Amino acid sequence: MKVIRIIYNTITDGFKSVFRNFSLSLASISCITITLILVGVSIILSENVNKFTDDIEKDVTIVVYIDKDATTEEIEKIEDNIKSLDNIDSIEFLSKEEIRKDMSNDSEGIGNILGEYDEATNPLLDEYLVKVKDTEKIGKTAASIKEIAKVNTVKYGEGMVEELVKIFDVVKKITFVIVIGLIVVTAFLISNTIKITINNRKRQIEIMRLVGASNGYIKLPFFFEGIILGFLGSIIPIFIICYGYIFLYQKMNGILFTEVISLVNPDKILLNLMLILMSIGIIVGAFGSYFAVRRHLKI
Amino acid sequence: MNLIEIKGVYKQYKNGVTALCDVTLSIPKGDFVFVIGASGSGKSTLIKLLYRQEKPSRGDVYVGGINVAKLRNRKVYKLRRKLGIVFQDYKLLSNMTVYENVAFALEIYGLPEKDIRKKVMNAINKVGLKEKFRSYPDQLSGGEQQRVSIARAIVNNPKILICDEPTGNLDPETSMGIMDIINKINEEGTTIIMATHDKEIVNKYKKRVLYLEKGILVSDKEKGVYKEHESN
To answer: How many CB pairs under 8 A join A and B?
Structure first.
């Protein structure tokens, strides 16, 4: 009973002091709100950059041309051999006949030229289109495929792909660092604001110590107060970011200027984002105030 | 065993000031002790050692069987629960009513609301503030505020009441009113240690008097008075 009563006191005290020190609470809440909006925006941006780079990387394909004299069996064997390599995501066969038809449909000029050939005299080669799991290792995978018997040539946009992968890697790292940096700055800002607000209540803490409250008993209400502040502070950012992003996504039909850059679907990230923002608010609020009180427990 | 036992205590502050020098004394249960001396004589330091606001540099301080010198910061509350402390500046919370200020000291024990109310009203009655338990400290006179702080100090029935110049901010008449309350608490069995430099109070009550000068305990007399030469 006693413990329950103490816990009950602790929680109600936490609530009470949020309202009793309303102007200070408001200062903490607005600080949390503003910094969390920044964090939210930066997370959305970095998610989109990641999606864009992933989309591009996924599009990278190794085209495997097969020798003209390869038999059907040999062609099947090539497929088995490719599949047995690691780093293979998917493989698709394109016969030279399909390619001829596709190319003829694509352009009239080419269609006229290819029209002079029939199935037997088709000058094109059969192909496998191979997608890899890890684009960074594409060079090695392509080289391994080249070794397979009856493979004529292997092409994947050598040089350019490697450059692109390198650039994307750097971009991803930079956005990650920015997000983490912002979270750290947020934590620092929030805990500092709370520190200032708690300095104003030094007297209360001092008196609690003097009447024989244990340190834990003193710290807990501040801990809860921090949780409440963090929670309240994260509500506005969550609304702004979620509705803002959904609005933007719908307004732009899910793409940024061109079809090549498609935006991340809000359904996929907003729930996580809400949880992330709320946890940052709550965790930083709770520990910010917890550590801020600790400094005053030396009297 | 005596309730308070101080043995060979030295206190030197970080800035080099020696506040207490080889002080040894003991206070039995139920005693009423005045600690007097000029400003800077070390009386405040002596009082602060008792509730472990300060730690002695050397020597032992036993309060109710606890060695204060060795008490860790996070165990301090165990000592303070045995004590009631009254300060010159009352140390009340201005955003709480008289009732809440007193109840504050009991809530930490997790007592049922009913028990808290009974004890708090009891303490408020004792100091004669029954009519004003809903007032805020700002609405009270200095004497009344000090009574609230006394009520808070005694609400938990402490064995020892420590008073650090409780009448320092009050006029003589109000001071006597406060002293009557403190004296009554002593008559009910609570040990009282009170730092003061109010000559009239000391002379009127004729209790045990500890006189400190430059950190040294120069006299310790039963039924002592505040002598003229001592105040110089």
So the answer is: 59
Determine, for residues A214 and B93 on separate chains, whether the beta-carbon distance falls below 8 Å. Answer: no
> What predicted TM-score, i.e. pTM, was given to this entire model?
0.70
Which among A281, A201, A198 has a CA at the least distance from the CA of A235? A281
Nearest to B53 among A204, A208, A299 (CB): A299
Measuring CA to CA, which residue among A89, A78, A84 is closest to residue A131?
Answer: A89
Contact B110 A298 (CB under 8 A): no
Of A286, A291, A290, A207, nearest in space to B107 by CA: A207
What is the C-alpha to C-alpha distance for residues A156 and A6, in angstroms, rounded to an integer?
A: 68
**Hey, what domains does chain A have and what are their CATH numbers?**
2-56+163-294 (no CATH), 61-156 (3.30.70.3040)
Which homologous superfamily is B4-82+158-231 in?
Answer: P-loop containing nucleotide triphosphate hydrolases (3.40.50.300)
Average pLDDT of each block of 10 consecutive residues along chain A (299 residues)?
78 80 83 88 86 81 87 86 86 85 81 78 86 84 86 82 82 86 80 76 86 87 86 92 91 78 85 91 86 77
Q: How far apart are the first and last CA of chain A?
A: 30
- Cβ(A226)–Cβ(A285) below 8 Å: yes
Number of neighbouring beta carbons within 10 Å of residue B59: 17
Complex confidence, ipTM? 0.85
Residues of A in contact with B93 (CB under 8 A): 203-204, 207
Taking contacts as CB-CB distances below 8 angstroms, the residues of chain A near B90 are none
Q: Domain ranges in chain B?
A: 4-82+158-231
* Closest CA of chain A from B217, distance in Å: 26
| Chain A hits for B79, Cβ within 8 Å | 212
Amino acid identity of residue A273, one-letter, is: L
Of the candidates A236, A239, A240, A229, the one whose C-alpha atom is nearest the C-alpha of residue A189 is: A229
